[in-house]
Amino acid sequence: MADLQERKIKDAQMRATINQKLVETGERERLKELLRTRLIECGWRDQLKAQCKEIVQSKGLEHITVDDLVAEITPKGRALVPDNVKKELLQRIRTFLAQQSSM
Amino acid sequence: MSLHGCEHLTSLKAAYGIQPFYIIHSYFIACSSIEARRVKAKSCFCHTCRYRGLRVHACLSCVYFGCYNEQHIHNHAKTKKHNLSVDLSYGTVYCYACGTFVYDEELENVARKQQRAAAATLGIKRDFAPWEPGQDEIELLRRNPKRRKVSENSHIGLRGLINLGNTCFMNCILQSLTHTPILRDYFLSDQHHCHMTANPQQCLVCEMGRLFQEFYSGVRTPYIPYKLLHLVWTNARHLAGYEQQDAHEFLIAALDVLHRHCQGQGTNGLSYSSSHHCNCIIDQIFTGGLQSDVTCKQCNNVSTTIDPIWDISLDLGPGPGSTTAAIAAGSNLVLSAVGDPALPMAVGPALVDLPTASLSPASGFTNSPSNYEPTSLLDCLKRFTRPEHLGNSAKIKCSNCSSYQESTKQLTMKKSPIVACFHLKRFEHSTGYHKKISTYVSFPEELDMTPFMSSSRNNSNGYTNQIVRESATGLSCDNKYSLFAVVNHSGTIESGHYTCYIRSHKEQWFKCEDHVITRATAGEVLSSEGYLLFYHKQLLEYA
């Protein structure tokens, strides 16, 4: 039990350190740009835009907030991200970490 | 919602100007300096629960960061009456009094400027932006209210072509070109501006544009491409007349004429070879760079040349100068086949064409699998890009050691074209005889050209860590292609017929035989003989 707790704390620290490195070096922005491009290329953006339009139209512009839309569209958006896009991003992060650790 | 914010933002701006937003945005959202990035990396977390991640907001009135998801920023806004905050992930401004995001033109301009500067410091090219209609386009859309929606099973873009007397060679090339996605986008978005101002009726590019209009108009009766045929006849005289022509020859001639007309050059203009540094749509789509490395055996000096190419012609049948090796390999197979009764079926095809092997002297190459007859497109490409010993009789003067030496030559792809056209050389014209090679050559629906790129020859790709490099090359999509058209020839070298398969959407294949179009399966396409294979890049770079 204590081990699990310890590991959770360690994981969180690790995540924070990695995130900090990604931001500091600007790599996070590069990854974001890559992701943006890939999502547009594979039609994800258009798909999501169409779904958002549908939701807004069905509820009426006056009765919907950004928060409603975010709550409804987020799970769909996550599910629609193609596997190869996720793989490519993961690969890029691995590459970045390998380079960082060899420095 | 307007572009002028809300009354709360207006009063905040009246009191403090845009300074608070400016500072927060430049340090925590779009950083242009190493120092700012360091600050951002350290301090972007919720001051209440220390959460780092998406949707942490910064108060625009005091130094407080709080997360949106857990409502810590909401609580702050309520207790302190600080109504406005900025989302640290996206730079959008939220008003808690109005309960919604507010959009202010002035702040958005600041944000855009800083984002551009930040991207520039990291070397990110932000060329890609989703299309937004401009004033002209809005007007155009308003005046033309009819919309055509392309669904998965719509037949738009499919149209038969009447055979004008042995013109199936032209019809199948036209079908392939009209279903080239990037060429279609170019013509349907009306990007061609005619350069043949003196005689626009003579412009083949304009005629192609009209062909695209005809194909995508929704009309389903067969189209008669007589004007196009006439234009090709007048511009490429060797194709004129009512005889059957070679589809590959027609393709190259058509690309050449299109390329020349793009630059406003008439029939007597410069030819392809002398004016390849061109940015016309044909060159943008079809031109690849073929690198040839000649290595001197004496001093290992490599001299490199790069030539532009529109297609890759691949030899079938046993490789040149490898007769002995091929026969040796063949007889090995025969021996093993005799020894093992289960094998003869498998080796059958490899032996059929052995007598056609040219009887030139054998080179020093043995063991190379490429001395066999290629049975797949990948085999052909491997053979195309393998180092070739130029032999004793073809000594080349080395520029480094200034002597005539034996050398090896290797071809690789320096630049992969957007559309890769492979020509399987099925028609053999040797002295004394003409013959069609009907060997089955398998080809894949998805093709990765990475192993045949010049960068694979040098074998580093910039990664120092080998494991990372290997997995990265396996994942890279830069050189991945999808099959979208196949031209087939049936019959003999003297008389035959051309048909083609085209892909209209993903996994939607159709067979085009002049005016008849029928649905086909991917399996049929992949098991067809294949004469010209058209592959389209899966991902395009925005250079």
TrEMBL record, chain A:
Give the residue range of the signal peptide. Answer: none
The UniProt entry, under InterPro entries, shows: TF_ENY2, TF_EnY2_sf
- Is the Transport keyword given for this protein? yes
**Cell compartment(s), UniProt:** Nucleus, Nucleoplasm
Where mainly located? nucleus
Q: Record's Pfam families? A: EnY2
List GO terms (cellular component aspect).
Answer: DUBm complex; nuclear pore; nucleoplasm; SAGA complex; transcription export complex 2
Q: Which UniProt keyword terms apply here? A: Activator, Chromatin regulator, mRNA transport, Nucleus, Protein transport, Transcription, Transcription regulation, Translocation, Transport
What GO terms describe the biological role, i.e. biological process, of this protein? Answer: chromatin organization; mRNA export from nucleus; protein transport; transcription elongation by RNA polymerase II
Q: Which GO terms describe its molecular function?
A: transcription coactivator activity
Record's family?
Belongs to the ENY2 family.
Can you state the subunit structure given in the record?
A: Component of the nuclear pore complex (NPC)-associated TREX-2 complex (transcription and export complex 2). Component of the SAGA transcription coactivator-HAT complex. Within the SAGA complex, participates to a subcomplex of SAGA called the DUB module (deubiquitination module).
For this entry, the protein name equals Transcription and mRNA export factor ENY2
Annotated source species: Littorina saxatilis
The upper taxonomy is: Eukaryota, Metazoa, Spiralia, Lophotrochozoa, Mollusca
TrEMBL record, chain B:
Q: Which PROSITE patterns is this protein grouped with? A: USP_1, USP_2, USP_3, ZF_UBP
Would you say which domain of life the source belongs to?
A: Eukaryota
Q: Major place of localization? A: nucleus
**Where would I find the USP domain in this sequence?**
159-538
Q: Where in the cell is it found?
A: Nucleus
- Per the UniProt entry, the Enzyme Commission number(s) are 3.4.19.12
The reactions it catalyses are: Thiol-dependent hydrolysis of ester, thioester, amide, peptide and isopeptide bonds formed by the C-terminal Gly of ubiquitin (a 76-residue protein attached to proteins as an intracellular targeting signal)
Q: Which residues form the signal peptide?
A: none
Q: Name one GO biological process term.
A: protein deubiquitination
Query: Which UniProt key words apply to this protein?
Result: Hydrolase, Metal-binding, Nucleus, Protease, Thiol protease, Transcription, Transcription regulation, Ubl conjugation pathway, Zinc, Zinc-finger
Q: What is this protein called?
A: Ubiquitin carboxyl-terminal hydrolase
What Gene Ontology molecular function terms does this protein carry? cysteine-type deubiquitinase activity; zinc ion binding
Query: What family is reported?
Result: Belongs to the peptidase C19 family. UBP8 subfamily.
In this chain the UBP-type domain maps to 23-121
Q: Name one GO cellular component term.
A: nucleus
